Automatic annotation (TrEMBL), chain D:
It comes from the Bacteria. The chain crosses the membrane at residues 50-75, 87-107, 119-138, 147-165, 171-191. Coiled coil: none annotated. This is Hydrogenase. It is a multi-pass membrane protein. The keyword Cytoplasm does not apply. The gene is ehrC. Keywords: Cell membrane, Membrane, Transmembrane, Transmembrane helix.
Amino acid sequence: MKLYLLALLAAAASGVPGLWMRRRGGEVAVGLLGLAGVLGLWASLAVLSGGPGGSFAIRTASLGTPGLLVVDPVAAFFAIPVLVLAFCGALYGLGYWEGRRGNTPALRLVYGLLVACLVLLVAASHILVFLLAWEGMAIAAFLLVMAEDREAETRRAGWIYLVATHTGTLFLFAAFALLARTTGQSGFAALPAGLAATGAGTALFALFLLGFGFKAGMLPLHFWLPPAHAAAPSHVSALMSGVLLKMGILGLVRFLSWVPDPPLWWGGVLVALGALSGLLGVAFALGQHDLKRLLAYHSIENIGIILLGLGLGTLGKSLGNPVMQTLGYAGALLHVLNHSLFKGLLFLSAGAVLHATGTRDLERLGGLGQRMPWTSGAFLVGSWAICGLPPLNGFVSEWLIYLGAFRGLGLGRQAWPVVILLSLALIGALALACFAKAFGAVFLGLPRTGAGAGAREAPRVMLLPMGVLALACLAIGVAPLLVMPALGRVAEALGPAAGAGLSALGGLGAISGVALALGLLALLLWRWLRPVPQAGDLPTWDCGYAAPDARMEYTASSFADGLVRGLRWALWPVVHRPRVSGWFPRLTRYESHVPDPVLDRAAAPSLRLTVKGAALLRVAQGGALPVYLLYVLLTLLVLLVWMVA
Amino acid sequence: MVRSLLPTILQTLLHGLTVLLLPPLLPGLIAKTKALMAGRQGPPVLQLYYDLAKLARKRAVFSRTTTWVFLAGPVGGVAAGLAASCLVPFGHTPAPVSFEGDVILFAYLFGLARFLTILSALDTGSSFEGMGAAREATFSALAEPALFLGFAALAKATSSLSLGTMLAFPGSLATRFTGPLILILAGWVIVYLAENSRIPVDDPNTHLELTMIHEVMVLDHSGRPFALVLYGASLKLLVLGALILTPALPRATHAWQNWLAFYLALGGLAVAVGLVESSMARFRMTKVPQFLVAGVLATGFAFLLMLV
Amino acid sequence: MAWLLILVPLLAAALAFAVSSPTLRAWILPAVGVLHLGILLVALAGWRTLPATAWFGLDALGGWVLLVISVLFCICAFYAPAYLALRPERDHRVLSTCLLGFLGLASLLAQARHPGIAWVAMETTTLVSAPLIYFNHNRRSLEATWKYLVIGSVGIALALLGTLFIAYAAHMGGLEEPLQYTRLMENASRLSRPWLRAGFVLTLVGYGTKMGLAPLHTWKPDAYGETPGIVGALLAGGVTSCAFLALLRIYAVVGAAGEGAFARELLVAFGMLSMAWALVFMIRQTDIKRLLAYSSVEHMGILVFGIGIGGLAAKFALFHLAANALVKSVLFLSAGNIHRSYASKQLPFVTGALRRTPVSGWLFLLAFLAITGMPPFAPFLSEFNIAAGALGTGHLLGGSAFLILLGGIFLAMSETVVKVVFGTPSAQRVRTPYKDAPATTAPLIVALGLALILGVWMPRPLQAMLEHAATSVDRTPPPAEGLPSARLEVRP
Amino acid sequence: MLPDLLIALTMLSNFSLVATSRVAKAIQFAVLQGVLLGLMPLAMGLGRHFHIVLLAIAAVTVKGWLIPFLFRRALKQVHIQREVDPYIGYTVSLMLCALGTGLSLVLAHNLPLKAGTEYTLLVPASLATLFTGFLLLVSRRKALTQVVGYLVLENGIYLFGLLLVEDMPALVEAGILLDLFVGIFVMGIVINHIRVAFDSTDTRHLAELKD
C-alpha cells in the first residue's frame, strides 16, 4: 500500500519541478512517472499474484466516514494500464511535444495530475473520494485536450468534452446519492440481496449505466469522443483512449461487483448496448478520413466488445452459470488491458505520422512505410492486434468471449449468446477492412501529397514507448497463460464463482503452441524467399501503366466505398458527387464524409433550438422598471391568492 | 507404449504429407474438368506442380514502391493456411491439434491470411490491386457471419467447441439433424466458392482485371513469392474443403477407409467445383453480396432449426 | 463586543469620509476588515444561546453569516487599494464610506434579535449600497442604481408589512412586545396561523427581492453588471447573505409554529424557479458580469431550495452560503481584472484571457469550475449533499430537477467561460496597461484557497456552530427514510 | 367613528391619486393621505400614550412637511407639470384600483382580527393603499410619480402599523419613519442625477440595460 501511495505522490509531483527548471524539466517528469510506474506496478503485481491488498484511510471531516483507498485485485488490475501508458506517453511526449509549444510546463503538470487522479480513482472505495478523483480526472483531461486552444476546432472539441463529462458526473451524483441511501453508508459496499430486482435497483443500474457510459464512450453517449481524441495531443489521446474510457468500465465493474443477483435483463441490456457500440463504432470508423477520428471510433467499437463481455458475464451470473460468467468477465477485463495496450500503440504511431507530416488526413498521406519503417511496423502490430488476429493479444480476449458465448448456446433458448457471436464476427471482419484501409492509405503505396514525401522517421524517444507496447501485445498474445491467474483473481471480484478454472483452459496452451508454429513457419518461408535476387529498380507493373503515380492510387475513401454504401442505412454518408458531362469535362471534385449521428444530427440541432427558445424568453428582462415592479406585484398577488385558496 | 502411439503418429504424418503435397492437385482437377466439359483436352492435372517448380527457380521482380509488407502477404497466407490445416480433421480421422475453441482460431487464421494478402496488394500502390483488395475486404465481411452461424449451429447440436467433434461428430449428427446440416453445408459451399474466389463470385482465369477479386491482388507477385501465393490458394481449397466435406462423410470402421473416403470426396469436390464453373457464369459485382447474404440466411435458418 | 462589531466600522466610515488622502483612505478598508474579523473571532469564541430578552447578540446562525461576510469583506478590502489605485479618475470617498457603513450595518443585522431592528438594518444596507452601484457615475450605472433603489425599496417595504403581520400574529396570540426572536420561538404555538402565513409570504417576497430570487431579481444583472467587481462581490456575497439571514429568522419562527410544510413548498418552488430563470439568461450570455449576476440568482435559488428540502440539505445550504460567497468573490474580482485589461466585458472582444492575464484567467476558470461543483472545492460538498438530501428524503422530482438544472446551467455557463478564457486575444482590441500584479490577485488566491480548505477540512468549533445554526433554522426533523446523515455530512 | 371617516378619506384619496394627471396634485393627495394617517392614532383615542403622541407628531412632520418640501424642490428642478401618456390610462387605472380594493377586502376577510377590534376597515384599507401605490409605480413613466407611488405604498403599510401602534416599540417606529424619509431623500438625489444625465426624468430613457 505504501508503495502505491508513493506512486500516487510521485505521479502528482512529476510536473512540479518542471515549473522552475529552465531545461530538462521533461526528463525529470518522465523519471518521476517512471518511478511511479515501478512502485505502482510492484504494488499491483504483488496484489494480483495473491498478496494481501492493503488499504489506507483518509480522515477529514468533510468525508464523514474515513475515506478508504483499497488496492484490491480490481484496482491493481486497472492500475497497470494506467501506469504503463502514463510512462510511455510521457516519454513519447519528450519527442512529440517538448519545445514545440509555449505551454509545455503547464501541460506536464496537468499530465502528472491526471495520472495521479487515475491512480487515486482506481483505488478509491469511498463515494466522495471516488467523485473527487473522477472530476479531477475529467478536468485535467479537459485541460490537456485544450493544449492547442489556438485552433477553434480544439476549443469546440474541448467544450463538448467538458459538457459531456460533467453531465455524466451529475448522473453519478444521483446514482451515488441513491446508493448511499440504500446501503446506508458512503463507503463502497455490496447491495442487499433482492434489491437489484426492485425499482431502486433499476434506478441505480440506469443511473450508473448513464453516468459511466458517458465516460466509456458507449453509444449513443459517445459523441464527445471523436472530436476530443482528434484534437488532443497524440500522447494524451493515447492516455484518454487507452485509460480514461476504461474508467467508465471500471465504474461498471465496481457496480456489478456489488450486485449479488442481477436480473437477467441487465445482461441483455449490456449485450445490446455492446453490440450497438461495437457495430456502429466500427461502421462509422470506416467512413472517416481523419486518422485520429478513425482510431477514436475504434475505441467506441472496443468498448462495445468489452460491454459484450460484461453482458455475457452478467447473463451467466443471473443464470447461475459459472462458465459463462468466468469467460465473459475474464474476456472483458482482459480486453480492457489489451485495448489500452494496442490503442495506445496506435495513437502513438498515429501521432508520429502527424508529427512527421503535419496532417491527419488519410487522403493526403501514403507511402510512409519506406520513410518511417519503425513507425509503420508499430502501427501494423497495433492494427494486427485490434483486429483480433492471432497471435496477438486482441485475439486472446475475443477468444475468451467467443468461448463463453458458444458455451452459452448450450443452455435453453437464450438468444443473447448468438447475438454476441454474430456481433463479434462482424466487428472482426469490418475492423479488418478498416485497418487494412488505414494502414494501406498511410504507409503503403506512394505518397499522395508532398506532406508524406518529406517525412522522416520519428526520434528514438518516440519509438521506444511504441516498442514497449508492441512487445506487450505480442507477449500476451503468445503466452496468454501468464496473465490468467491474475485475471482469475480479478474476475472473482465480480462474482464468487467467476475466475475459477480460467488457467485450466486447455486452449490457451494450444494457442501459444500454434502461435509459435506460425512464427516458425513464417521464419522458414521468409528464409526461403529472402535470397531471391532483385531485378533492378522498377515501377509497379499494374498491367502496363508506364508511369503509375500517386494520383492513380486507390484512395482510402474508395477502398471503404463499397462497405460504406452497403451500410448507407446506418451511416447516412453525405456525398457530394459532381455531374461529369461532355467529352472534355472540366476539373471537378468529389467528396464524401460521414457525420456523427448523435453530435451532428441530434445534439447540435437541439442545442440550436434551445438557444432560439432562450432568445425568445429574453424579453422578460426587457429593461423597463415598471415591468420589473409588475413582476413583484404579480408574485405577491399569486402567492397571496394561492395562500387564501 | 510405442505400439499404442503408433497409429496416431502415422495419422499425423499422413495428415502433414497430405497438406504439403496434395493441394496443387485440386486446381488441376478443376481445370481438367472444365476443359473436358468444354470439349478441350486442357492442361495436365499436375500442371500446378510444374508451375510451382518453375517459379521456385525464377527471379522475382519487386516494384520500387514496395516494402517488406509486399512479401508478408504470401508468407502469411501460407503459414496461416498450414497452421489452420492442423486444426481441421480430414474426414473422420482426428486433427493433429484439437482443443476447446479451436474453431475460433481456425476462422481467425484465415482472417490473418486475408489481412496480410490485402496489405501486400496495397503495398504496390497500383489502383487495380487496391480495387481487388477493397473487394476482398468487403465480401469477406459478408462471408464471416455465414461461417460463424454454421459453427454456432453445429456447436448447439454437438455441444462442443472443437472442430474435431463438431464436424466429425461420432453420434447421429447426419441422421438427427439432416435438415439443418444440409442448410449449413449449402451456406458453407457459398463461403467456399467466395473464399477460394471461384465462379460465380470470381473468375480465376479471366483476363479483364477490372472484374477480378483475388487474382488482381497478386498481379505484381512473381517468382518464389508468386509460387507461395499459388500454393496458398490451393491449400485453402483443401483445408476449407475438409471443413465442408467432413460432416457429410459417413464414419467407417477402419482408418484407411476413412482416408480413402476423404480423398475420394475431395476429388469429387474439385470435380463439382469444375462442373459449377463450366455450367454457370460469373455474377455481376453487385450481385455478389446478395449471393453471400443467401449463405448467411441459410446458416442462420439452420441455427434456428437447431433451437427448436 | 457586540457593540464594537457595529461601532468600529461605522466610526471608520466617518473617518474615511473625513480623510482626504485617497491612498490613506484606501488602506483604512483592510485595516478595519482585519480588526472586525479579529473582534468577531474573539466574540465567536464565546457565543452562546442568548436570553429571551436580549436585543442584541451573536447566536450560531448570526455568527456564521457574519463570519462569512467579515471574511468576504477582508478579501475585498485587501483587493481594494490596488483596484482604487487603478481608478485614479474616480474619487472613492463615498465608496469607502459606504463599504464600511455596510459592514457596520451587516453586523447590526446579524446581531439584531428583534425582527423590527433586523428590518431597519436591512433597509439601511439597501440605502448605503445604492451609492456603491453608482460608483462609475455614468448613465448605465445611474440606471442600474435607480432600478436597484426602487425595486429594493419596494421589496423592503413589503418585508416591513410582513414583519408587522407576524407581530400581529403574536398580538392575536396574546403575546405582547417586545417580541424578540427567542420569545417568538418559545411561544410559536400561540401565533395566529393565517397572519403567520401571510406574514411569511410578504417577508419572503420582500427579502427575496433583496436576495434576488427570480422573478424578483430583475435589478441584479444591471446592478452587478455596472459596478466594479469589488462591489459586485460584496453585493453577491454580503447583501444577499444579510437578506437570507433575515428571511431565515422568520422561517425559523414559521417552522417552530408548525407551518413549516407551507413554507418549505414556497422555498422549493422559488429555488427551482430561480435556477430555471437563471439558466435561460445564461444561455449565450455575452456579458461576463451579467453572467455572474445570473449565476448569483441561481445560487440564491440553491440556498432556498436546500432550506426548503430541510435536514441534510438545509445544513449544506448554510454551508453553501459560505462556499458561494468565497467563490463568487473570486469570480467577480477576476472578472474585474479581465475587464480592466480588455476595457470590455463583452464576449466577442474578451477572448484568450489565459494569455493576456494568466493569473486572473486561471482564477476565473478554476472559480467557475468550483462554483459548478468540482471537488475538492467547497461548493461541490454543498451541491452534492443538497442533491443527496433531496433524493434521500424522497424529493425524487425536486432532486432530479435540481441536478438537471445544474447540468443545463453548466452547459450554458461553460460555453461563455471557455470562450473568454481560451483562444487568442482578439486583435482589434487595444491593450490596456493593466497587468496581473500580486496586489490584484493575491486576495483572490487566498479566497480560492479558503474555498478549497473548506471543501476538505473544517475546524471543529466552526462545525459545531454550523450544526447549531442548522438546527436553529430547520425546526422540523429530516424525514425518517432520509440519507444516514452522519455518513455524508460534515461531522460535528 | 372618526377613525372610520379618516380611513374612508384615505381610500378616496387613493382613487383621486390614480385619477389625476397632474404631478403636483398627485403629490398633494399623497401628502394629504400622510397627514390623515399621522392623525389616526390620536383619532383612535390613544392620546394617553406619550410615545404615541410623539409618534403622531413625528409622522405629521415627516409626511406633512419634510417630504412635501423635498418633493417641491425636486418638482422645481425637473419642472414637469403633468404625467403625459402613462403606461396605463387613467380610467383603466381607476378600474384596476377598484379591483385592488375589492381584492384587499377578500384578503382581509381571510385574516381574522383580534376579538373586539373595532377598526375592521383598517386592514382592507391598508392593503388597498398598498396596491394603489404599486399601481402608480407600475403604470407611470415619470420618476417623480413613481416616488409618489412608493410613498403611497408606505402609507398603506403605516396604516396597518396602527393596529399594533399601542405596543410597538418606539425604536422600531422611529426607525421606520427615518427610513421612509431617507429613502425618499436618496431617491430625490438620484432623480436629480437622472435629470442632469438625461435632461429628463422620463423613465423610458432608463431602459438601456437589458438582455
